[in-house]
Design a protein that fits this description.
Order of helices and strands: EEHEEHEHEEHH
CATH class: Alpha Beta
Structural class: alpha+beta
Radius of gyration: 18 Å
Strand order of the largest sheet: 4-3-5-6-7
Largest sheet: 5 strands, mixed
Shape: globular
Distance between the termini: 31 Å
Strand content: 25-35%
Number of helices: 5
Number of strands: 7
């Protein structure tokens, strides 16, 4: 994934004002990964498994896609504890906006060996669907991997009452788009 390169300058506006820092962000290619366009959940699971499946702590992976569903970037958004991971949702969208993503997928691993989502996993996925819908960067899927198995929240969306095609009832996209 391209890593941001931050160039810092200091500018003095007037003698009576303090200096203001100006930041310019430039993306730098860290490592090149080559994948065909993602057309099915198995391909997403393979990417997630390859990048974080065998880690000893929870890793939260963001996979950014262009409009043709080609991988344009991957980012480990957070490395957590043995059995938990705390991260801010804004960090995910910061990466997606910097990559100019047209869609995205999420994945995290469970080093303990289980592959079923927790209540928190479902809640985060629901929020990410809503925010993605507002930002017009749709969430394609959220995977849980553990080295030997994977669990797709999209494939089990009915069980978890998730709708990947529209925002939840507590979020009114049409009304919000008129306000913005």
């Amino acid at each position: 994934m391209k890593k941001p390169k931050i160039i810092e300058q200091s500018v003095s506006l007037k003698k009576s004002y303090r200096s203001v820092r100006i930041y310019d962000v430039e993306q730098v290619l860290d490592e090149k990964l080559s994948y065909d366009p993602v057309r099915n959940p198995e391909t997403l699971a393979t990417i997630a498994e390859k990048l974080i499946g065998d880690k000893d702590r929870e890793h939260f992976l963001v996979i950014a896609f262009n409009t043709k569903h080609e991988v344009i970037g991957t980012h480990i958004a957070h490395v957590g504890q043995l059995n938990s991971s705390l991260m801010h949702l804004r960090e995910i969208f910061k990466i997606l906006i910097m990559c100019n993503a047209g869609a995205y997928a999420l994945a995290h691993n469970y080093p303990s060996g289980k592959a079923e989502p927790s209540k928190e996993d479902v809640e985060v996925t629901s929020r990410m669907i809503d925010i993605g819908y507002l930002m017009r960067i749709p969430l394609l899927d959220h995977f849980i991997v553990n080295g030997s198995r994977e669990y797709s929240l999209r494939e089990h969306a009915v069980i978890h009452r998730l709708d990947f095609n529209s925002p939840s009832s507590r979020f009114e996209y049409q009304r919000m788009s008129r306000i913005l």
